[in-house]
Amino acid sequence: MDWVTCASSAACTGIARQPYDRCLAHLRPDEVAVTLDEITPGRLLDLRGTPINGPLLGKIIEATGGRPGRARLDRATFTSDVRLSGVTFTGDVSLDGARFERLASFFGARFEGNVSLAGAAFARELSFHGVRVRGHLSLDRAVMSRDALFSQAVFGHGLSCERARFDGYATFDGAMLGDGASFRGARFGRTLSFRKVTGHAGFDTAHFAADAYLSATGRLSASRARADGSFDVAVASGRVDLRRMEVAGGATIRLTDSQADLEGAVLRGPAMVTGRGWSTLTSLRHVDAADLALFGLDLSACRFAGLARPAAVRVKNCTFALTPRGVRVSLRWPMLRWFSRRSALADEHTMRGWTAPGDSPARHPATDDRPTAQDPPAGPDRLTAPDRLAVLYAGLRAQVDDVDTSADFAFAAMEMRRQAGRHWLLSLSWLLWGYGMRMGRAAAWIALLMALTLGAVFWTSASHAERAADPPPAVHH
């Protein structure tokens, strides 16, 4: 303790009131009256470590006129219901390590400064419903054994619940987070309802032991988090970071003019990512999904390298990157190459070096091509980059709803095998008829062959005609 404790008992940690050497809870009634007379509205209220029951709390609030100033209540113990409706704290409030043995209701209270409840323990329900905190609220390492209600609350400078434990139902519906909220390392034992929240929120490394419903505007992060139940996310005009997240139940991610990153995620149940407006998926690298459906998304910048089960991904109404079009000259055989427009993965753009502005999708910091811990080491026994792309294209082609895109992926799979140098016949097939999928190329070769044949026939006929027209040589005897 950094204060002089109550002399009435070695077990009491309440701050001693001078000149009595005892805390407010252990003063005689006449001493309590004298001490409360010294408490005025807007002034410092120091009750650190003090056990406070219902009647005593009522007298304290009455003495401050319902407007305490700076309040220091660290490690205080509240043995009765706490109801602070109508109370306005004009200064910062510190309740670090406090214990609430019964209901803790801050409904109707106002906080003009910062509030710290770090390490606090709530044995019964906690209510911050509709509370307005002008500053920042901290519940780091707090333990909420029952339901925790934060719906419609307003936090001017944000909320921090890092490594907090929510053992009961938790709701933040309609809350306004100001500078954002952090739930890093938090644990939610029952259902979490985080719907229609305004502001950024981070649930990195959090553990959702039951169902979680997250809906927000702005950035939402749950990287390396774990969800044992279903996981439902809806984000508008923001970004979703779900890298290396693990979901045991079903997962639904709804994007509206937003982008999402699922790199390294493990989705054991049925999962679905849908998009409205301008919605993009930036990475599916190293994703392990048993059943993943993608609807209405821009996948032109999405990286697929390392996708564990390409055949388990269903794609509908999505757009991909397009290859550049035109004729190019190369020092490698064949020296003259021509490219027709087709759908392609962003990984192929990177492999081929198609990085000119307008030709390749914009890169995303989280989806670059630097090696990661999950990338296989290079070696003769490992597949090359074209080989891996061929597997991706072959696995995805049957899952794409668009016939033209499916055909493009079938062509790309053969193209990647040719790039890997698997067989010279592939090069011949590509050159002559585009693996049987570019019949216009075969028609061009036939037309060229016919033109050459006709030219040879005309040339031969002309030569014979010229010889027939020449007069026979004169014979002299």
Comma- or semicolon-separated keywords:
42 strands; alpha/beta; 477 residues; 22-stranded parallel beta sheet; twelve-stranded parallel beta sheet
Overview of the molecule:
The chain has a 22-stranded parallel β-sheet that branches. The protein has a twelve-stranded parallel β-sheet with strand order 1-3-7-11-15-19-22-25-28-31-34-36, with no helix packed on it. It has a four-stranded parallel β-sheet with strand order 6-10-14-18, with no helix packed on it. The protein has seven helices and 42 strands. The radius of gyration is 36 Å and the shape is rod-shaped. With 477 residues, it is of the alpha/beta class. The model is unreliable at 356-381 and 430-434 (pLDDT under 50).
SSE map:
Layout: H1 29-37, E1 45-46, E2 51-52, H2 54-63, E3 71-72, E4 77-78, E5 82-83, E6 88-89, E7 93-94, E8 99-100, E9 104-105, E10 110-111, E11 115-116, E12 121-122, E13 126-127, E14 132-133, E15 137-138, E16 143-144, E17 148-149, E18 154-155, E19 159-160, E20 165-166, E21 170-171, E22 181-182, E23 187-188, E24 192-198, E25 201-202, E26 207-208, E27 212-217, E28 220-221, E29 226-227, E30 231-236, E31 239-241, E32 246-247, E33 251-256, E34 259-261, E35 266-276, E36 280-283, E37 288-295, E38 313-316, E39 321-322, E40 326-329, E41 336-339, E42 343-344, H3 346-352, H4 385-397, H5 403-419, H6 424-433, H7 439-469
Parallel strand pairs: 1-3, 2-4, 3-7, 4-8, 5-9, 6-10, 7-11, 8-12, 9-13, 10-14, 11-15, 12-16, 13-17, 14-18, 15-19, 16-20, 17-21, 19-22, 20-23, 21-24, 22-25, 23-26, 24-27, 25-28, 26-29, 27-30, 28-31, 29-32, 30-33, 31-34, 32-35, 33-35, 34-36, 35-37, 37-38
Antiparallel strand pairs: 39-42, 40-41
Helix pairs in contact: 4-5, 5-6
